Amino acid sequence: MTSQELVELRSIDISTIAKSDLADISTLAIDANENVESKINKITLFLKNPYCFKCDDTKIQIRFVDSDTALDETLINHFIGVKNR
Q1: Which residues of the chain have pLDDT under 50?
Q2: Cα(33)–Cα(49) distance, integer angstroms
Q3: 48 — alpha (psi -120 to 50), left (phi > 0) or beta?
Q4: Which residues contact 46 (CB under 8 A, 6 or more apart)?
Q5: Is 52 helix (H, G, I), strand (E, B) or coil?
């Protein structure tokens, strides 16, 4: 997959995609003994769009933001905020 293809896939709005058209990541089997590059290739080929897929019946769209904050810290802050609502 080229950089340009990834840019195009990243810009897709998941609300325009029917659930039935998304790959279901819950059915993907990954061998823990494979190297990282092999795992990434397998996931990318399986999902067709690594930014939009589903897990069982839930649509998932992945987005990244340029930030110095680590993912775990961002998630902790998010869930603390949700809990305090």
Answers
A1: none
A2: 24
A3: left
A4: 23, 25, 28
A5: strand
